[in-house]
Specification:
2 domains, globular, alpha/beta, two-stranded antiparallel sheet, eight-stranded mixed β-sheet, about 375 residues, 12 strands, Rossmann fold
Length: about 375
């Protein structure tokens, strides 16, 4: 599988949904496989909240593979011997695209809180500019889970002629209060941590120890990615072998797991980027600029495949099902397939339990449209 990592710079302004303007910006992206001469074998993969452009493969001197590695490659579901797969790091991220810690060309200082709020629509618009520059006029398919699914739906509505097939996993048409509440915990923790310094921190301050309150907020968020069933299966009531049961701060294995994930994440992910990205997710609503969900979905021309997971407590299956129901009521049921996967893992099932849904993705990719 051929892998290329690139950064594209745009000098032209990006007009944002908020009314503000990004005078210039960078987008970092990774491609897998080769684009054919007709440029009609492109599959766009959108990443989720903490993901990046690195969706597959392994970098030199690194042990960790891309976040969707089992899905992308020669002979895999997104078969790179047939398709040219591209994944773009979203605006606001801390993995190479323009974000709050990017340098202001005029002041030579990081933008920090002067960086504008970016919406899902803004992310998609910037990516469309990239695809245009690369000569990609139409995608064979676009696919994403969680925030990636938001981008996929947004692109299907706002750029209806771009993709023939749209696949959404573990996502929603509008972020609900339950998910916003989880995000609030991390937001409060970051903002009120003394080391955050109202966004005026030095990123090097967190290399050895991340923001403590950010780590705690991330632990809360991580709970929403799993489920009671998956936690029971993964940890049960097992206790850390080296901790005493009657020590006040002795830990169950699940507590040790939460500590590790929270603290390691806070060292590798920029807190300002996190604030900006969860803001984009929180305000995502496919009906915001339309009269109703029906008014929004009527623009979609692609074949839509919706995949939810029974144990997902972050974006509930009914949030995806209402998209299917709405299209059915509009007399467009032939343009949408909906599958609720029998899974109790939780929201992150789309990153873990590949064997439970890969068939439906393969079916969607092979569908005639």
């Amino acid at each position: 599988m051929k892998i290329q990592t690139c950064v594209e710079h745009f000098n032209e302004p990006l007009y944002l949904e908020s009314g503000r303007i990004l005078e210039s910006y960078d987008l970092k992206y990774e491609t897998y496989g080769e684009m054919n001469e007709a440029k009609n074998n492109v599959i766009v993969v959108f990443h989720a909240l903490t993901g990046s452009h690195h969706a597959a493969g392994r970098y030199e001197n690194e042990t960790k593979v891309g976040w969707w590695d089992p899905f992308i490659g020669d002979g895999r579901i997104l078969d790179t011997s047939r398709y040219y797969v591209i994944c773009v790091n979203v605006l606001s991220s801390c993995f190479g695209s323009t974000g709050p810690m990017s340098i202001n060309a005029k002041t030579k200082e990081p933008l920090r809180l002067k960086f504008p709020v970016i919406t899902i629509s803004d992310m998609v618009r910037s990516q469309m500019n990239l695809f245009s520059r690369l000569g990609i006029k139409e995608a064979y398919a676009i696919i994403g889970g969680s925030m990636g699914g938001m981008q996929a739906l947004c692109m299907a509505v706002e750029y209806p002629l771009f993709a023939k097939r749209v696949i959404m996993l573990a996502s929603t048409y509008a972020t609900g209060p339950w998910a916003i509440a989880f995000n609030k915990l991390a937001m409060e923790g970051i903002m009120h941590d003394p080391r955050f310094k109202n966004g005026n921190y030095d990123p090097k301050d967190f290399e050895e120890e991340g923001l403590l309150s950010f780590a705690i907020g991330r632990m809360a968020g991580h709970i929403s990615f799993l489920s009671p069933h998956s936690m029971n299966k993964k940890f049960g009531r097992n206790y850390v072998e080296t901790d005493g049961l009657y020590e006040l701060f002795g830990r169950f294995q699940v507590e040790k797991y939460m500590e590790y994930n929270g603290h390691s994440f806070a060292k590798r992910f920029d807190p300002l980027s996190y604030l900006y990205i969860i803001k984009a997710m929180n305000i995502f609503d496919a009906t915001r600029n339309y009269d109703s969900l029906e008014d929004s979905l009527k623009h979609i021309k692609a074949k839509l495949t919706l995949i939810s997971f029974q144990g997902d407590i972050l974006f509930l299956p009914e949030e995806m099902e209402v998209i299917k129901t709405t299209l059915d009521d509009m007399g467009r049921g032939d343009r949408v397939d909906y599958f609720c996967i029998d899974s109790h893992y939780g929201h992150d099932a789309f990153l873990v339990e590949y064997d439970k849904f890969d068939f439906y993705v393969k079916k969607a990719l092979e569908a005639k449209v």
